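Morning!

This is the sequence you dropped in the shared folder:
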Amino acid sequence: MTPAAKRPRGRPSLDEHEQRRRLIDAAWRVFEEASEDRVTVADIVRQAGMSSRSFYQHFSSKEDLIAEMAEDVGGAILAAVEADFREPLEDPVAQTARALGTFLERLPSVAIDLTRLEGTIGGRVVRLRQRVVRALTGVVHDHLVRLHASGRAPRRPERAEVEVLIAGIAELGLRYYSEGRRAELLELQPTLVRVLIRALT
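The structure's back. C-alpha cells below.
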C-alpha cells in the first residue's frame, strides 16, 4: 500500500505578484502610523509577515518600494479619471468637478515626501508624474473637444493650455500631499474647478 503524501506545513507559498502586493499593502499601513523617515524595511516586513530576504527579492530599498507605491497611486488616479470622462456628456461644470474630485480623493491620506527621493528612484517618480500629467492632459483635452463639438463649450482649447493647468494642479496636489495637508487640498476643490472652467471654456 502506497503511503499517503505528506501535506506541507505552514502557509501556502505566495507567488511573486502576491508577495510584492503584500509588501506594498504593509508599507501603506506602516506609513499611516509613523513618518516616512522613521519607517524601516524591518517595520515593513514585520507588518507583512515576511522576511527581509523576501523584501530584497522585490525591491532594492525602501525608496524603491515608495516609488512603486507612487506608481500604484498614479495608475489608479488615471484609471478613475478616465472612467469619469467615459460617462455620457453632462453638465461640463459637474463633470469637471467630479473628475477633479476623483483626482484629489485618490491621493492617499499618508504623507510621503516624494520630492526627497534622489537618483534613479527620484527619476522614476519624476517620469511617473510626467506620464500621468500627459495622460490626464489627453483625457481632459479630448473631453473638451467633444464638449465643443456638441456645442456645450464655446471654444476648443489648445492642448498646451490644458497641460499647463493639469501640471499645475498635479504639482499643487503633490506638494500638499507630501506635507500631510490632504484635508486642505480637498477644501480647495471648488476653487480649482472654477479655475479650470474659466480657463478652458
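Headline: Residues 15-59 form a domain with the Arc Repressor Mutant, subunit A fold (CATH 1.10.10.60).

More detail when I'm at my desk.
O.
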